[in-house]
Amino acid sequence: MAEAVHGAVGRKRWTRLIPVAIIVYIISFMDRTNIGFALNGLHKDLGIDAAQQGLAAGIFFIGYLTLQIPGGHLAERWSAKKFVGIMILVWGVLAVLGGFIQNFGELLVVRFFLGVAEAGIWPAILVLISHWFPAAERARAYAFWMMNIAIASIITAPLSGWILSFSDWRWLFIIEGIFPFVIAAPIWWLMIADRPRDAKWCSPEERAYIEEGLAADEAASPQLGHVSIKHVFANSAVWRLTIVYFLIQIGFYGLNIWLPKVVKTITSGSSIEVGFVTAIPYVLAMFALWYNAKAADRSGRYSTHVLLSMAVGAVALVISVATGSAMPILAVTFISIAMAGALAYDGPFWASASRAMPVVVAGSAMGLINAVGNLGGFVGPYVGGFLQDVTHGSFMATSVFLAACLLAAGLVMLTLRKGGDRPTAEGAPARRSHPPTGGAEAHRKDPESARAPAGPVVDGNCGGVRIDGTTHLTRVTCCQISYRKEARRFGHRR
What we know:
Layout: H1 2-9, H2 12-33, H3 35-46, H4 50-58, H5 60-63, H6 68-97, H7 104-119, H8 121-132, H9 135-145, H10 148-166, H11 169-191, H12 204-220, H13 229-233, H14 236-267, H15 271-299, H16 302-323, H17 328-344, H18 346-356, H19 362-374, H20 376-390, H21 396-413, H22 417-420, H23 439-445, H24 447-451, E1 456-458, E2 465-468, E3 473-476, E4 480-482, H25 485-488
């Protein structure tokens, strides 16, 4: 039925907006993480040790905190197209400047402001999608778009390795820094419109379908009273979720940033070989994201599935480093499993989070979880580099530290089983749910799903976005999406 409706009203919002948004964020993620391939050159040319390399990689996430809420607010109140279009140009300038730095201090400044420039992109695109997709199909739109992280990693690794095969780290920053100007900005300004009424390419039928759907969502939206921030800080579930997310980001970004160096050590390959091998873990991670989300959805034991993915990632990471260059194929296999585990938590975590906390504090709580959690992206690379300096270049201590953070995150997650897991009938599979049809019809067909929170899911960036908090749209203060089963079928990453 849904496909028939889509065919009748048109699919330009799917074939035009979503692919462009994916391309833009792929380039954004590329300019954020390509420093992992530049670390050896930075060490040789600037004389910075591993701890300083980790600091340079991690300081991005300090700047990344600044425009999370303002980015979403400006996109909602002003223009997502204009805001993102401007920030694409700003981050492009900063990315290119990275190729001209002369000392460690300049590197830190450029990386910090690159984080500032990219901070508002994610929440602004979430707002844009909320203007184009009614609630009944918005979860799928978010889910498709959020696959960009794994796709970006798969593309960035071999491309960066190829560039380094004929140049150096300076040209790596410059060449990939040009992409925002020659790819991201042109397609964004030419193909994106803030709303259906602003798009000449949107057919009258599709425009009417979208606007009528959004109007119905708005009419069904309950008016919530003011919630004080003290309710968020007083909620123990919020703080436990914050701790879990912080620890996960330490493990993921610590592994993500240092992965090219680890692969280089294991394989002793050329830059282009390292690039292609580094892409392998993210291919496996895409399958792990989908499978773990599907399995968790079926069982309802979200906390357990977070623990399992963290445990697999932790154990596989240590085994990979311990195996090392003596058995490179086995080591690469285990480090691929480690990355898959470090990413597969995503769906079950946010599904559990949406159930563990009261809906009335969900907006501000998600903002706190993501703001603090993103700081793990600073801690992981920096501490990882420090430990390598202390151990004279060995990655074993770093791997144990990152693995311990992942495992600790899974163990803390178990404390949320009572409120975060979805109860199911003993011995029976979880009841299949469907995207809401809205209003009283949804309550008649499925009163339980209409009553229970659908599960707001959030990326690491915050802003004002309308989400499907229950079966109604609810305005909150951070970037959330409804994590319904339709979205968990695909899996996604922040």
